[in-house]
Amino acid sequence: MKQNPVTIRQKLAVHFREVFNVLDCLGIVTYLVSFSLKVIVGHEEYIPITGDFTLTNCYHLINILAFMFLALRVIQILEVSVTTGPKIIMIGKMMIDLAFFIFLLVIFLVTYGICAQALQSPNDVLTGNRLYNVVLRLPR
Fold first, then answer.
1. What's the CA gap between 90 and 41, in Å, rounded?
2. Alpha-carbon dihedral sign for residues 23, 25, 28, 32
3. What helix, strand, coil percent values describe the chain, rounded to 5?
4. What is the spatial distance between Cα 80 and Cα 88, in angstroms, rounded to a whole number?
5. pLDDT tens per residue, the chain (140 residues)?
6. Is 114 within 8 Å of 134 (Cβ atoms)?
């Protein structure tokens, strides 16, 4: 016979055994971190995301992670529905094939970007920031 958890530590252990409870907590924590970064950054003018490591870029990236965690939770809720459930399951199976295709596409894009950059400016040193610009084709 299974005992009910008594202490807070046992209750938290039972709560976090479910993957979607962990995703909920990660979504909430990442959103709060991104919100606090937005408050710290203040009302700056819009700065597009670049290869530089700034608080604005961190805010955008952490906010994207929070959205992804919470979107996964919404997808789990929709799986219960009779009409949307089978469609969500089919989309999940297609995502595996899509991930493999995107992996192959990234290999070809990075290879093309490096070759094109090497032909355009053969004397440049390839650093991490430069590699970022090679893939996205940002101007210098």
1. 41
2. negative
3. 70, 0, 30
4. 10
5. 567 888 999 888 888 898 888 988 999 999 999 888 888 877 665 566 566 667 777 788 888 999 998 888 888 887 777 788 788 888 888 988 999 999 999 888 888 877 877 777 777 766 666 666 666 665 55
6. yes
What's the token pair of residue 15? 């709560």
Q: What is the largest CA-CA distance in the chain?
A: 72
* 74 Ramachandran zone, left/alpha/beta (phi>0; psi -120 to 50): alpha
Is this model's pTM higher than 0.85 or not?
Answer: no
Q: Spell out the residues 6+ positions from residue 134 whose beta carbon is closer than 8 angstroms to its own.
A: 110, 113, 114, 116, 117, 126
Token reading at 18: 């479910």
Q: In the structure encoding, which two tokens stand for residue 22, read together? A: 């962990």
């996964």: which residue's tokens?
72
